[in-house]
Known about the structure:
By secondary structure, this protein is of the alpha/beta class. Helix content is about 55%, strand content about 10%.
Amino acid sequence: MGSRDRKQGGDTAIGEYCLFFELSSECPDSNNLSHYYYKVLYGHISSSIVIFWKREGTKVKDFFISYNSADKTWAEWTAWTLDEAGYTTILQAWDFRPGSNFVLEMQRATSETKHTIAILSPAYLNALYTQPEWAAAFVQDPTGKKGTLLPVRVRECDLKGLLSAITYIDLVDLNETAAKEGLLQGIKQERIKPLVEPVFPGDVRRSVTEQPRFPGALPPIWNVPHNRNPNFTGREDHLASLKKDLSTGKPAALTQAIHGLGGVGKTQLALEYAYRNVAEYDLVWWVRSEEPATLATDYSSLAKALELPENEAADQLVIIKTVKHWLEQHSKWLLVFDNAKDRADVNDYLPQGKTGHVLITSRNVNWRGTATPLDVKVLERKESVDFLLKRTGYTDREAADVLAEALGDLPLALEQAGAYMEAKGRNISYYLNMFTVHKNKLLNRAAPSTDYPDTVATTWDIAFNEVKQISHSSADLLNLCAFLASDDIPVELLNSGVQYLPESLTAVAADPLAFDDAVDPLRRYSLVEITAESISVHRLVQAVNRDRLDGDEKKKWAEAAVRIIDEAFPFDSDDVRTWIVCSRLLSHALAAAEHAEALDVALDSTGRLLNQTGLYLKERAQFAEAKGMHERALAIYEAEYGPDHPDVATNVNNLGLVLKALGDMEGAKKMFERALAIDEATYGLDHPTVAIRVNNLGGVLQALGNMEGAKKMYERALAIDEAAYGPNHPQVAIYVNNLGGVLQALGDLEGAKKMFERALAIDESTYGLDHPDVAIDVNNLGFVLEALGDMEGAKKMYERALSIFTEYLGEDHPNTVTVQNNLDSLS
């Protein structure tokens, strides 16, 4: 499968590492736990925490929802949200069945639930029958310490009497994501300390700037990927509407009403708004939102620009949460989610409150409930004419009117027509005649596409024919770019993948002057945007470009694109040191792999690239996306090699790791068992690769509660690696640590203590005294000392582990917090 080996998901060097923690009280209904398994952090410090517990059977439920019929939709949404979060509820609309005694049902509901949620609104406060419901809860807990009565305000209302003294959960004017977070945080009845330090109230420098900005200068934090369009014309009503809507604090969504067709200028409108209003913002951040993975990457990258301590956290969800919280605590910022597919994709990223502004561009029209839609259609005819005259410098309004009509007033087509006339020095009438001829030829050649208007296809055809006459290298460069993501195509990709380029582009890759010569015609005819480091191509231009290639040409360029990205994408994509490169190449990896799969080319590179992308996404806690990558890679390798090839085993193993991270233990178990069977048949029973599979299987057996089975797996993995590497290898320390954990779970505390002490000795000799790997051993040793009753010894271990984690990971990292909880549990 090519000359490069494939990385196995995080296990090749480190196997599975276990960090044992005290059970927290964060899970719903924790008072009803009869016994539990320890929290285990799998994957060497940076993977996800999985909690397993067993519940006692009980009829007592968590919440009774008290509401007025006018607020039934709010009550049902509240009950559904709580149920989905793992709580239990009683709701009249769902639980009081026809024929039942309403008074008895109400008595049962209030007596067999721990808390009463009162849905507050004017209708609720004015109704007589709702008063006994909340009053019964109030009598049980008049001080509010138990949280028996939890008012939730959903509409503006004035609270009087007893209710006025109770702090309520306020959902008024929040979007769905913010309301869900507010509800679930409010019911926990615990302290909600911010993830980042609040702004000092007496600090006059309330923004990210240290001094006043020169008028017209860009904000200090600015990542907008496009230059301002000097020919932007019209849209004044839209810009005014945006200004008005954003001033209310509500996010505004730019959408189009031409049923999936692009090119109407949504991105250009957002871009113009950002440039016109630079003085309003200290931070403007552009988020590519076409794919969930790139959306998460761009959003979390703001943490580095803000120099937040969590910017290097392994778990991308931690970074996202921290960025979101920072935005909620600061003002004068603008977020732009460009080309979002659906509101579900962006909801979790929208900050609560009214501290900043959000723009969303999308082809989807369904944004009610998340943002204020702004319908963007083609330009008004006067705006189209004004644009053409401004773009070309001509004054013939009548000819411009006719051409604008022929182009359908579509901004992208108008821009390409104007660029051609400027480059060639042709007047409007000449271009109109040429456009008509080309359009008829194109329509005779093939049926119109449903992905873009025929006007765009025609203007592209005219421009591309001219480019080919100037330079075949220019045309080939555009062909290559058509099979990558549309924005931020790194120029250095040509250099890193020169061996996969056709002869027409090898000189372009090697010589900066030749590159400039190739790019210039594309820029002049408005087919690309170019910066010193990257190329960007409009999505519709890419689509037209691909459609105009024949089958063999499509395969040629799809193969070149995927091989170039595969060559550039880091082999150690699960290593934090490679993540800057991985994040920049992610969108191109997704695009190139998709085209290669569809055209059935370069499957060796495609499968490898999907695997490496999956490893990166898993380490960034993008588990659902990682699962999709590994499933696609597995399908490719099975088709290429059959079901029992060692490369298939690697993909099966990596898919198992993702399933485990997602909580699908049975699915993970099947994957590990399959990978183990393949590798045993390939390498024999005592190979280190087999030990990795055995160890991973032991981890999932432990998670499933089969401690004896897990013990056998860890002992076998340990025996294999001791024979292969000797007794003091860091890989051996991993299996020693894991065995210690399962011995402790089985009650063999002395045996567990010996294992943790041995693992600690190996890791200290390998990494030194203050390495995070050492901190895991120290914490685990403290845990077993605590179980043995040696509280002083446990305290010393926890304090040492806490010091190491704080220095390397920061105070807010989950590992640091958990060890702090372990230390606090001793007091």
